[in-house]
Amino acid sequence: MTRDKRFDILFEPVDIGPVVARNRFYQVPHCNGMGYRDPSAVAAMRGVKAEGGWAVVCTEQVEIHYSSDITPFIELRLWDDRDIPMLAGMAGKIHEHGSLAGLELAYNGLNGPNFYGREVPMAPTGFPVATFTYDPVQARTMDKEDIRNIRRWHRAGALRAKKAGFDLVYVYAGHGLSFIHHFLARRFNHRTDEYGGSLENRVRLLKELLTDTKEAIGDDCAVACRFSLDELMGERGLEKAEAEDMIGLVAEIPDLWDFVLAGWENDSRTSRFCGEGGQEDYLAGVKALTSKPVVGVGRYTSPDRMASIVRKGLVDLVGCARPSIADPFLPEKIREGRLEDVRECIGCNICVSGDFTMSPIRCTQNPSMGEEWRKGWHPERYRPKETDKPVLVIGAGPAGLEAAHALGKRGYEVAIAEKTTELGGRVARESRLPGLAAWARVRDYRVQQIAKLANVETYFDSGLDASNVFELGYPRVVLATGAEWRRDGVGRCWLAPVPAEDGVRVYTPDDIMDGGAQEGERILIWDDDHYYMGGVVAELMARDGRKVVYSTPAVEVSAWTRNTMEQHFIQERLIDLGIEIRCCRNLESLEAGGAELSCVYSGRKERLAADAVVLVTSRQPVAALRTELESRKDEWSAAGIEDVAVIGDALAPATIAHAVYAGRRYAEEIDAPRTTGDSVPFRREIAELLAD
Ligand code: ADP
Ligand code: SF4
């Protein structure tokens, strides 16, 4: 296949100070929940990005000093020379594939409570630490000596980065996460000395750090500056006009500008709240302020859009974090003209949840993400099959489709039997809900890949029972039959059915997705699930003109979405839609004409009138086929069945990412002996023990 000429522009080299990027694909720094705890796993993950064609591959933030740690989050550290080998390993993996290795030096200051190092945090002005967990810690105001010290520590960090082999080193002033940002922002900086007050004074420290870094390593390494163009909080925060004036004061010092929005939740909005290229209005015009190359992000997955932002002069390098996570081989696929093979990010921010839950990064679209070293999985390469035994996959949701896709790529003969006339299972259904259209990409990528595989056949309208399975006689059968929302209110609060009077009108999210005429003007949604579904159903019903009350035992709407950085946006949307929000409420009982709720703290009860109640509590595996097969186990061998596995929501309902992972895992382990659980099934690193 040949590349379309209109994408040639993306493969032009770009000079970045003393180094050259071989093309315009730039993997910006991104967290991954692995950091210093899993260094070989991060190194392998970055190496795969380089292999996939990203000209520049950056680390996540790297703490330069023990006096600013962002515990409990797990990032990287360059506190002293002992940290260098870990980082050098990472740079080495990136260099193996001819990419430039970038490192983001960070000093969080006001953004870290220092729970690990127990040092007093430092900030331009001594305010309470700006963490969203409201940690009961205040920073102290830096004096001149502190500033001199931090400049020295930052310089030492830059020298260590160079020693570790990095080609590009960041001065990080972005996202509101860096002490430099706090110096720049009026609201954090109340200083009256030469580092506070006027714009020039607030920029002084950034200028000094850029100059220090250039002097220390600038002959060999490029120096990048990550900078927030806007905080989206009006005049209380940094706004674009002020940001542009600041850039003007230091425009030519760094070798590269990487522009972002602050905070991170504004920069990495989910597809529910922001489309591709959401930062372009902010990027407009900033390139004119500097002669140095500019990087900008915008969850770009379309090569046309990427080429267009370069052509329009918005950026020189296309910055990507999430698109590079969903498809580490995005540049290579565009280079080779294989656009139909691109695995597009769906903008769900499950990757971000790895950082927020301090667990290794996972991705809904790319099940190998985070498993490159731990399990030896690769996003594009699959081990050849080990037997010729064909496989019957039952159910074509994310788990079944991914199992079939990965088995097919391994070379197995696969048949997919799907009950309905549609592939995709829950992603097909959920992608029709407001704001979730991009989720259909989970299905589309797999369906497209399977269509290319002669060894995978798909059968629609094929709801199978045990007798059908026996007749088909596949030696391996995998049940990926999914799950259904419960109608009885069982979830976290209620482990037995919620007491309900006869005649109460109860709906589940499945009813809503099936689109039947739901009756009732006044709808109560009770959300004991806490991820996105309750909020999405509330949005849908409100847009449909119903009077909606959203209630949950949690203290906020869609509480788990804090981990995907959406919670604030969801609650804001529900408020804007006029939905009445009642948090901290248990559901006591369902009554004709309404429900009884109670305060989770005081137990005080209240009656709420409602024509219908939507229960968003938990899901139940679709288990009929499994149960039937298990009860007829004595017939398996006559039918030629050796193994029946259950994966995804059919085993235990969880996120779409879990289901996709389960599909890949099944395909990877199909010929391995069934795990007995007696040994750890993935690689891990254990801390070096020092002598007492
Ligand atoms: P998961 O998230 O685990 O992939 P989904 O609920 O998204 O689960 O998908 C399950 C799929 O399995 C649905 O498309 C459903 O129609 C299909 N399915 C369920 N039971 C059967 C069955 N007995 N035979 C064939 N297909 C089935
Ligand atoms: Fe994109 Fe979701 Fe994967 Fe993150 S987890 S890269 S948002 S598909």
Blueprint of the fold:
Blueprint: E1 14-16, E2 19-21, E3 25-27, H1 39-51, E4 56-63, E5 76-77, H2 84-95, E6 100-106, E7 122-123, E8 140-141, H3 144-163, E9 168-173, H4 179-184, H5 199-217, E10 222-228, H6 240-250, E11 256-260, H7 264-267, H8 280-283, E12 294-296, H9 303-311, E13 317-320, H10 322-326, H11 330-335, H12 350-356, E14 391-394, H13 398-410, E15 414-417, H14 425-430, H15 441-451, E16 456-459, H16 466-472, E17 476-479, E18 483-485, E19 506-507, H17 509-514, E20 522-527, H18 533-543, E21 547-551, H19 567-576, E22 580-582, E23 585-591, E24 594-599, E25 605-609, E26 612-616, E27 619-621, H20 624-631, H21 636-639, E28 643-646, H22 656-669
Parallel strand pairs: 3-4, 3-13, 4-5, 4-6, 6-9, 7-8, 9-10, 10-11, 11-12, 12-13, 14-15, 14-17, 15-16, 17-28, 19-26, 20-21, 20-26, 21-22
Antiparallel strand pairs: 1-2, 18-27, 23-24, 24-25
Architecture overview:
By secondary structure, the protein is α/β, with parallel strands linked by helices. The protein contains 22 helices and 28 strands. The mean pLDDT is 97. Bound molecules: adenosine-5'-diphosphate and iron/sulfur cluster (SF4). Iron/sulfur cluster (SF4) is lined by residues 322, 325-326, 345-351, 363-365. The site of adenosine-5'-diphosphate has 26 residues, from helix 13 and helix 14.
